[in-house]
Design goal:
4-stranded mixed sheet; Peroxisomal Thiolase, Chain A, domain 1; 30% helix; disordered N terminus; binds coenzyme A; globular; 354 residues; 5-stranded mixed sheet; alpha/beta
Length: 354
């Protein structure tokens, strides 16, 4: 069979059902890749100095322990949906895809304030993605990498022509501003990618999992039911056992990253970029060392300016690398997401530029 031309790299038509009781098979794409990228960074910059007016801490302590110099906290009009729509619209424009060509909108978040319906349904509506299924996924700071895995499978499996994967958080709504164990870490923002059909593999196999035995390591101070039963107490906020998360992420995510490289058939020397979840600069440094990443490979360090933006951190970091020309020609990047659950997901992707 002759090689496919770009125009042919589309979903095949559904395979009609043979006579009898068989079900027709969906059309499929040979491969999938990220074809567009967008980001939204809230306007308001919160420096460590400002933060320390409500938290008992110092700029020096925060910088030394986390590498964070400042973060963004969303203002009232910068809702979760509004930030997501901005990032997604930028990703669609970057991909050259109309909203009506999107078959599925996946929002990774832990900070949608309504139990139901999903924020993704409203995002799809506001974008004009009238032909799209839409739903939210909750996998903590690993949510975006889960979404990329889903997006790839939806495109290759034939359930959607193009998938919009958004990672967005308004995590400032869930922070106790006086809690010195969490308030300095987290920030708000949104990042998005468009995943579409491709003639060669653009998203490697995902290595993912969840360890529910560590369910309480990152979570809430109390659940909403407890709050409903006793609303006189403080409302639920985010809480975490910092040292436990630190140890787990620094040591256990390296084998996960290595497995993702192996699954993609890429060696660490062949990477063009390393884009881990932006949890703590020291965790990033520990991973770089343990992975034996060659010195010349650019490493995402968006955390210094954005803090930990949970599900938004990987696409935001990817966007900064492109904007700053840190990875001028695109190429292959290793993504590693990890967070509440405890959950994780890692994969090698081809970057959507160059
Ligand atoms: C949260 C984190 C920065 C804390 O750093 P740490 O080195 O583990 O700090 P510890 O909790 O051991 O506390 C060390 C000391 O600093 C103090 N301290 C804690 N928070 C402080 C703050 N905000 N400002 C100043 N001092 C603080 C503690 O009281 C303790 O003092 P002591 O030694 O006198 O008892 C670190 O554990 C971390 O980054 N963990 C991972 C968090 C993360 O990535 N979360 C998201 C995952 S998706």
């Amino acid at each position: 069979m002759p090689p496919q031309t770009p125009a042919e790299i589309i979903h095949s038509e559904p395979v009609p059902a043979p006579a009898g009781r068989e079900i027709a098979a969906p059309g499929r794409a040979p491969h999938a890749q990220i074809i567009g990228l967008g980001a939204y960074r809230p306007r308001r910059v919160v420096t460590n100095e400002e933060l320390c007016t409500s938290v008992d801490s110092t700029d020096e302590w925060i910088r030394t322990r986390t590498g964070i110099a400042e973060r963004r906290w969303a203002e009232p009009d910068e809702t979760l949906v509004a930030m997501s729509v901005q990032a997604a619209a930028a990703a669609l424009a970057d991909a050259g895809i109309a909203a009506s060509d999107v078959g599925c909108v996946v929002l990774a978040t832990v900070t949608h304030l309504e139990q139901t319906p999903s924020a993704a349904a409203l995002i799809a509506h506001q974008l004009g993605a009238v032909n799209a299924a839409a739903f939210d996924i909750s996998a903590g700071c690993a949510g975006f990498c889960h979404g990329v895995a889903l997006g790839r499978d939806l495109v290759q499996g034939g359930s959607a022509g193009h998938v919009l994967v958004i990672g967005a958080e308004r995590i400032s709504d869930f922070i106790d501003p006086q809690d010195r164990t969490t308030a300095f870490i987290f920030g708000d923002g949104a990042g998005a990618v468009v995943i579409g059909p491709a003639g060669r593999p653009g998203i490697g196999p995902v290595v993912w999992g969840a360890d529910g035995s560590q369910y309480g390591v990152i979570g809430q101070t109390r659940d909403w039911k407890a709050f409903m039963e006793d609303p006189t107490g403080p409302r639920p906020f985010i809480q975490m056992s910092g040292q436990q998360v630190f140890r787990w992420a620094s040591y256990e995510m390296v084998p996960v990253a290595n497995r993702a490289l192996q699954a993609a058939g890429i060696t660490v020397d062949e990477l063009d970029a390393f884009i881990p979840h932006q949890a703590n600069m020291r965790i990033i440094d520990a991973m770089v060392k343990a992975l034996k990443l060659p010195e010349g490979v650019p490493v995402a360090r968006d955390i210094a300016a954005m803090g930990n933006t949970s599900a938004a951190s990987v696409p935001l970091a990817m966007e900064r690398m492109r904007r700053d020309g840190e990875v001028p020609r695109g190429g292959t990047a290793l993504l590693v997401g990890f967070g509440a659950g405890l959950s994780y997901a890692a994969q090698v992707v081809r970057l959507p530029w160059g």
